[in-house]
Design brief:
With 349 residues, the protein is of the alpha/beta class. The protein has eleven helices and 15 strands. It has a six-stranded mixed β-sheet with strand order 7-8-6-9-5-10. A five-stranded mixed β-sheet has the order 2-1-3-11-4, sandwiched between helices. Helix 1 crosses helix 9 and helix 3 crosses helix 5.
C-alpha cells in the first residue's frame, strides 16, 4: 500500500481568489482534486485524495522549498522560481535544477526594465553606455533583484563594461551601498515605478501585465527581461522515489487534462446513414477530428461525437453546429469538457 504523501505548494494570492482570473480552485476540481479551505486562506485539504497534502505559501518561496525538498510540487510563476534559482546561484554558489512540467495558461506577466524617458535620438543601450562611462556605481530597484542582476550582467558584458562594473550588491532599499563600483540592487516590496520616477535609482525591473501603471508614471519600458505565467514545477529528484513519482504523475496528468480541456466542448449528433459520407467530408476538411471521428453506426442512423474549440475565431462553434444541421445532423448536443487527457505521454515526467 502506498504510504507516501505528495506535498503540493499552493500559492496564496490571485490564483486562490475564485473571483479573479486564475481560479485554481475550479481547475483542481476539474482535474479530480477538489480542494477544501484553499480559497478561504487555508489550510488546504484534498478530501478525495488524502495522499495529497497542501502546503499553503507564497509563490516567492516555492523555488527554495522545492530545492530543499520541503515540498514536492509547486504551483507558481516562472519568474519567482527563476528568481530563487538565481539567488542560490549568486548568493550561495549552488546550482539548483527544477523542472517546469506544464504551464497553466493563467497568470501571464512581463518582466521589464523601466527608466525615465531616454533622451531623443538615443537608444537605451547608448544611454546606458553613457551612464556607465559617467558613473562608477549604478543603482536599480526590483522585487526580483537576482533577475535584475542577471539582466544587468548580460547587458554590461555585451556593452564591454564587465570588468569595470561587474561587482554587485543586493540590499534593502536605501541602505548604504556596500560597494563603490558596479551595481547596487535595492530589493523592494513594490511601487518600483515611484522610486524610478523620483530619481532615487537609475532604473528598475518591474512586473507588469498591461504596462498601464508604468505609462501613468511617465516611464519608459526600455527592455524586456522575460515573460512569465503560472505553471507546475517539481524537483526532478522526486523521480528517485517510485511511490512519490507515481503520485506526482497522477496529479500532473490530471491537471494537464483539465488545462487541455479548457474552452473545449464535445458535440454529439445523429445523422442518417446516407448522409454520413457528406458529414465525414465536412469534418475532415475542417479538421474536426484527430485520427478519426467517434462513430456508432446503427441500422438507420449513425451517432457522432467530436471535440471542438469554443473560442476558435476561424471556425466558431455556432458555425459548426449550423453547418452540421444543414448537412442533415439532428439532436446536436453541446457538452462542456472538464478534462481531456490525450494519452499517457501527455506529460513528460
Amino acid at each position: 500500500m502506498n504510504t507516501e504523501k505528495l506535498i503540493i505548494g499552493m500559492p496564496a494570492g490571485s490564483l486562490a481568489d475564485p473571483k479573479r482570473g486564475g481560479n485554481l480552485v475550479d481547475l483542481l476540481k476539474a482535474a479530480g482534486f477538489p480542494a477544501q479551505g484553499y480559497d478561504q486562506g487555508g489550510p488546504t485539504r484534498f478530501p478525495l485524495n488524502t495522499a495529497l497534502v497542501g502546503w499553503d505559501g507564497r509563490p516567492q518561496e516555492f523555488g527554495a522549498q522545492l530545492a530543499l525538498n520541503e515540498i514536492d510540487v509547486a504551483i507558481g510563476g516562472d519568474d519567482w522560481i527563476r528568481e530563487r534559482i538565481l539567488e542560490f546561484q549568486y548568493e550561495y554558489k549552488q546550482e539548483v535544477v527544477l523542472q517546469r512540467v506544464m504551464h497553466l495558461g493563467r497568470g501571464s506577466v512581463r518582466l521589464v526594465i523601466v527608466a525615465r524617458p531616454v533622451a531623443a535620438g538615443l537608444v537605451f543601450d547608448e544611454w546606458l553606455g553613457n551612464l556607465l562611462n559617467e558613473k562608477p556605481l549604478l543603482s536599480m530597484v526590483s522585487e526580483m533583484p537576482y533577475l535584475a542582476l542577471e539582466w544587468f550582467q548580460k547587458k554590461i558584458a555585451a556593452l564591454g563594461f564587465a570588468a569595470s562594473h561587474g561587482a554587485w550588491a543586493v540590499q534593502k532599499y536605501r541602505m548604504p551601498p556596500r560597494i563603490e563600483r558596479g551595481l547596487v540592487i535595492y530589493e523592494s516590496w513594490g511601487k518600483t515605478e515611484a522610486k524610478v520616477v523620483q530619481g532615487a535609482v537609475d532604473f528598475g525591473l518591474e512586473i507588469t501585465q498591461s504596462g498601464s501603471a508604468i505609462r501613468n508614471y511617465g516611464l519608459q519600458i526600455v527592455d524586456e527581461v522575460m515573460q512569465s505565467q503560472s505553471g507546475i514545477w517539481v524537483n526532478p529528484r522526486i523521480k528517485d522515489n517510485p511511490e512519490k513519482r507515481e503520485l506526482a504523475r497522477m496529479f500532473l496528468l490530471n491537471c494537464y487534462g483539465a488545462v487541455f480541456a479548457e474552452n473545449k466542448t464535445l458535440l454529439f449528433f445523429n445523422a442518417r446513414n446516407e448522409q454520413v459520407p457528406e458529414i465525414l467530408r465536412y469534418l475532415r476538411e475542417n479538421r474536426l477530428f484527430g485520427d478519426e471521428p467517434t462513430m456508432n453506426a446503427g441500422p438507420t442512423y449513425t451517432e457522432f461525437s467530436i471535440q471542438t474549440e469554443m473560442g476558435d475565431p476561424e471556425l466558431p462553434i455556432a458555425r459548426v453546429r449550423y453547418e452540421l444541421a444543414r448537412l442533415g445532423a439532428t439532436h446536436i448536443e453541446t457538452v462542456p469538457l472538464d478534462s481531456c487527457i490525450p494519452g499517457w505521454n501527455a506529460v513528460e515526467f
